[in-house]
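Cont'd.
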Amino acid sequence: MTDTADSAAPTEDTAELPSFPMPRRCPFDLNEQYAELREEAPITPVDLASGRDAWLVTSHEHVRTLFLDPRLSADGTHPTFPILAPRRKSFDEQARGFLPWMDPPEHTRYRRMLINEFTVRRIRAMRPRVQAVVDGCIDRMEAGPRPVDLVRALALPVPSQTICDVLGVPYEDLDHIQDRAEVMVSKVHPPEERAAALRDLRTYLGDLLHRKGREPGDDTLSRLVARHRAVGADDHDHLTGLALLILIGGYESTASTIALGTVALLAHPDQAAELRADPSLAPKAVEELLRYFSVADNVTSRVSLEDVEIGGVTIRKGQGVLLSNAAANRDAAVFPDPETLDIHRDARQHMAFGYGIHQCLGQNLARLELDVVFSTLLRRLPGLRLAVPVEDLPFKDDAIMYGIHELPVTW
Amino acid sequence: MSAPAVRRAVVDRDVCVGAGQCVLAAPDVFDQSDEDGLSYVLVDPLPEELTPSVRDAATRCPARAVQLEAGAGAGAETGAAAETGTGADPAADRQPTGPSPA
């Protein structure tokens, strides 16, 4: 093992560094330290719970510039990568085929196997199918008892059914996949059960890929297998990793934004009413909700492969960098009055999907799902309201992915 | 020099990562290939009225693959530098050319 601890420390004295992650101040707002740091030291050293430290970047300008800098590596297995918490031993193995952690040229090669599955045109063509999934969920909500947990009734099933559709998971396996995926992201299950759920999904997808190789269908996995063969690559583990990424990458993040976005719209009834009256506002509202919550804030980290000078500091080779997209998305220099939810603002410069070569591959699918969910929910259940006070909602303050564990609603 | 130059929208397909931002920003100018998902330009030269949408596309492109080329011999604008002032020198921190296809 190489001990690179010295080169990984932004400063010599780490005793008084702010610690990261910084818990959100309230369900809707980030920790107040972000704004202070952005003002005084937009690139600043912080302590991580893993024992490592890193530079935290909080201004839109610097986050964006660094996302584009090829001297920063996304390799999460790098010995000084700024991991947030101590890591399980099996981790590197699970990371095989994990696109977000690849650098070019490997990243380019694997991402290009997936790009044409997620083009704007292909995603647009999925709208009727997503609409049917959302309507099915709301039909079941209407037929069932109230209050109902919107996370389990709508926020989780919409992305999981949509993604299974994309992947070509047979209908009869849907319950199994949904069950495993739900365990994987739920706090009520102990870590070992959640890890087992992830393993089960990996095993399932590995088997499914073999089947798709033998009996191809009109779906992403079948085409992925074919494309993989065509370029002479025959790494089953890597393919399984890509399939797993599609499944989990589009699952919890979308579910979280559906649940949080619903809470935000219910907390801003005037804006919800406008959106209900004019569904053509939905694309703008979706961008604003993506900006406002930035649920995947803690996943955009890098490690520097060279000395990088920026904003008056030098990020040394080997040092970790946390590109806070949530902090960037609350930068008043780009988003005036950033703490205010405003579905009419032009929020398109948000980086909730990241920026640079790793920007979310499934972003247009996420946009479609959010658009259909919010438009349909407001239209079909106009009397929707929280069944408990917002203060009592169990927000995922301690999770890598921000969200809500349970969202009791009625109407 | 300041006469309305013929402008061209350009996509560097070696750099494109297929995020589709240009198609969303300027659907009349860009599309993604069914074959490989990479973006390409639909209209060349660029009609004057579509210029703002191409600037928007250049700003939003996460790989800075989209450029607005202004006439022969003039420099190219990249979104980050031209529109937001956030990039430093567009030439300095531009991605190196993407890995050549195998």
